[in-house]
Write a structure and sequence with these properties.
The chain is an all-alpha fold and 52 residues long. It has helices at 2-25, 32-51. Keywords: Membrane, Transmembrane, Transmembrane helix.
Length: 52
């Protein structure tokens, strides 16, 4: 039984970590309106910082 738990840990651990890492790397693509809103906010913040 102890050998099985070690095998599960050694083999299953990296698989679980790999799956979690892959899920964390996925990014949802922004829609066109979301990109425009992001860009407007970035420009606004940039210009506010330049005015100081």
């Amino acid at each position: 039984m102890t050998e099985f738990l070690w095998l599960l840990t050694i083999v299953g651990g990296p698989i679980v970590l790999g799956v979690l890492f892959a899920m964390g790397m996925r990014q949802r693509r922004l829609s066109r309106s979301e990109r425009k809103a992001r860009d407007r906010a970035t420009d606004r913040i940039y210009h506010e910082e330049q005015g100081k």
